[in-house]
Amino acid sequence: MIKKILITGGAGFIGINLAYSLLNNKDNFVIIYDNLSRKGSEKNIKWILSSGFKNIEFIKGDIRDYTKLKKSVKEYDCIYHLAAQVAVTKSVENPIEDFEINAQGTLYLLEAVRKNSPEAVFVFSSTNKVYGELLHLKLKEQETRYSLIGKNGIDENENLDFHSPYGNSKGTADQYIRDYYRIYGLKTVVFRQSCIFGPHQHGNTDQGWVAHFIIKTLNNEGITIYGDGKQVRDILDVSDLIRAYNLSVKNIEKVKGNIFNIGGGIDNTFSLLEFINFLEKETEKKIKYKFSDWRPGDQKIFISNNAKLKKELGWFPKISKEQGTKALIEWIKANYKDIE
Ligand SMILES: NC(=O)c1ccc[n+]([C@@H]2O[C@H](COP(=O)([O-])OP(=O)(O)OC[C@H]3O[C@@H](n4cnc5c(N)ncnc54)[C@H](O)[C@@H]3O)[C@@H](O)[C@H]2O)c1
What we know:
By secondary structure, the protein is an alpha/beta fold. The chain contains 12 helices and 15 strands.
């Protein structure tokens, strides 16, 4: 039986990696729905459409176009909802557009699914930004980083505290999706993701900092650090994220209605200063950087506690931060023409 799969935002970084992994199974038919608004998405979609797959269809569409969305949502086995306005900075500049894409667009999709494809598994990429700035955490300031005192990371019991328009719009979507499980019985799973990195990530100053720092370094350009650079992030290779998505789909009867935090966890953290140091060694380049003001809602530290995912699905990150980022450096060298 052919499995019909819809990926909204499927031309983006995570979406294109997900599509590629699904397309390698001939029993899957993948439909990508994306408006190609993200710089780099056009490149991604051209790449996948010219990769020789016969089991793919591309619909150029906007998540805010309810009429088109309803027509595009037929009976699917699985829906991955990844389309989003993804940058906190852009959400501050234009909160209405951010809300319309992330919150209203998600509600449109949920309604289309409820009416046309209620049996589909529905996977959503939410964000750790729903937990806000986490000012109550006890932190120690060290030379190159902040560290958490008395905690291994943030789990799903952390209070929601939407901060920034992006935090609000993604958090709204996150809660609607959970509620469509309770009220309408949709088979939903929500992943609150930390920083994800990997091939096809066209990082820029607004979003995708791991790829952005690598691109700037390889181009011999300077980097602006917002804040003091000691902020810590747990980073996760996109293939590990996709493995978790797949496990949740396979075990949907067990995990439907659940929310999971997901990230590199305690073993895969970098502060921005530490990542710069690592990059200098890996690329043998001296990186010029300057500091600017903190960005709104920016957490001094975020580390995902992945214990629930491990308990429910046996998942844990397999690719280390060093292994993954070295592979990304090579991918960027091979795929960015403007890099020497
Ligand atoms: N990359 C990360 O570190 C990270 C972390 C937490 C959460 N997320 C979430 O994961 C999802 C995918 O993120 P990504 O890193 O692949 O970002 P991305 O920007 O590469 O992908 C998003 C895709 O959505 C598309 N899109 C944007 N607005 C749209 C609209 N109105 N209609 C249709 N398509 C639209 C874009 O063209 C793009 O292809 C997003 O929902 C994001 O909020 C990502």
